[in-house]
Design goal:
The protein is of the alpha+beta class. Among the domains are: 96-153, Nuclear Transport Factor 2, Chain: A; 171-310, Glutaredoxin (3-Layer(aba) Sandwich). 32% of the residues lie in helices and 15% in strands. The protein is built from nine helices and 13 strands. The protein has helices at 6-27, 96-100, 153-167, 195-202, 204-209, 227-237, 241-249, 265-275, 297-310, and strands at 44-45, 56-57, 112-114, 120-125, 128-133, 139-140, 145-146, 151-152, 175-177, 184-190, 212-218, 282-284, 290-292. The protein has a five-stranded mixed beta sheet. Strands 3-4-5-6 form a four-stranded antiparallel beta sheet. A two-stranded parallel ribbon has the order 1-2. α6 runs antiparallel to α7 (241-249). The chain is globular, with a radius of gyration of 35 Å. The relative contact order is 0.09.
Amino acid sequence: MLRYLALPLTLILTATVQSIGAAAAVAAPTGAAPSGAASPASTTSTPGTASPAGAASTAGTASPAGTAPAAGPASASPTMAAAPPGAAEPASADPRLALLKLLPAGAKLDELKPSPIPGIYEFMQGADVSYLTADGKYFIDGNVYDMKTRDNLTEELRTRARVAMINAVPESLMLIFSPPSPKYTITVFTDVDCAYCRKLHSEMAELNRLGIRVRYMFFPRTGPGTESWHKAEVVWCSQDRNATLTRAKAGAVLDLKQTCADTPVAREYALGESVGVRGTPAIFTESGDYISGYMEPRELVKQLKELQVARR
């Protein structure tokens, strides 16, 4: 990434050093060696005379063995000039700024961070993680594993992001079906018209009996303005949301005019896209693990237990 900064940095350093050298030369009293010149303890020979052993010779004279000839008149070398007290170092630009131009429109600087691999940045939007080389030549879409621990480092980033985003939604904006003393809590992105969403919901009594608490958020797969979207809004705007959702998933005809001004459908749909929902039902555990698709209640409990053990 230094190549992006080479020219500006060289110009800044050259200008700074030259101005410092000039200032030092003017400030030096007559007969005194500026900073970086030969010290008074050394004698300087004039042109045409021999320099004593260890003395510095001026241009045009021969230097005794073991001594280095001076490049010119005895003066302060620009590279040796000391910076004035309190002088600030030239600020270098953040190397990520050049990389940001290579990423999708709307990408933010704080979404691009150094990865565990030197020379590679991780780019993270929502729970979507990818990688970019520091020279901007290669974009990597895949998982990074720690070969010592065999941990999937990319998936760990995803799960932490999912947990943070889902937990940021208050439960007052969810539809919750819970047993008295739940053992597990799952968050399910659901579509009123999805066949497997309906099958999962038809087994709610068994899910609750097995200790599973279900938190629903809306994800109409057909998108905004569609019938499934309007059904989700009608469910939310009803007096008894849980009962209306159950009726809708059983195939009851809803009055699509019975909507209200503010519903969470659009926000939850956008959240589903951010956490990586690829279809419904999309099931997320409390730890952020993603279970894609329908599972029979007992199989789901088994899966939840295995995921809990794996995280211990």
